[in-house]
């Protein structure tokens, strides 16, 4: 189970993290009363990459890159292996920024993040990056096909089976065309050829191929219908011990997570366990994660 520092809720500590300005290195003392400008000499978020680690966040504070706004303050969190954490909150509370900080893609702020090595961590953005290359390369990304340094050698039959699982059963056959073969070595501009929903399903296929220990999903199913979303998240169960953290707005996401971290508008946070009743109630027509 996850544990939170000042945002422990039922996991210990007060129910909400609070972002007090007094004594904070993030708030400039030179500002007039009531100002919330952020000092830009706060340093950077520190990271430790450790093989076998899951995810540990200690006293993490996030600011916008121009230091104009504090997003999250003082978040401490331990994520256990196999945990499925959903991050929710109003627009502008720093959900995607937090995911990027966890992935090592956001350094504006301070605090410390311990996470697995890059080869064990996989980040799925809302718009997946599709290279101009072969279908095989799209499935192996960010690894390279076999025969090169850092390559991943996956049998063709396994790659074709992954396409079936992510509901792209005819993609390889469609692009094979006059080139012959099974279509895996067909080169296309995949961003132009595939819809956003198809790109997102392809990205879930990458997860199955790369089999990381930590997956970070930023609105990764936003273009999918509810049935496809369910199918994609259920596929993640095929990766033993996978820990994943998602950001999303759909109430249906509660069904695929066991904990919820709510980011608050006052830079605080609240960690909650998701119960089955919560997931069922969230499917009501008027429900919302916000």
TrEMBL record:
Keywords, alphabetical: ATP-binding, Membrane, Nucleotide-binding, Transmembrane, Transmembrane helix, Transport
Ranges of Gly residues composition bias in the record: 1-15
Region (Disordered): 1-32
Domain ABC transporter: 57-290
Cross-referenced Pfam families: ABC_tran
Keyword Transmembrane: yes
SMART domains xrefs: AAA
GO molecular-function term, one example from the UniProt record: ATP hydrolysis activity
Keyword Nucleotide-binding: yes
Similarity comment: family membership: Belongs to the ABC transporter superfamily. ABCD family. Peroxisomal fatty acyl CoA transporter (TC 3.A.1.203) subfamily.
Protein's recorded name: ABC transporter domain-containing protein
Organism of origin: Hemiselmis tepida
Lineage, highest ranks first: Eukaryota, Cryptophyceae, Cryptomonadales, Hemiselmidaceae, Hemiselmis
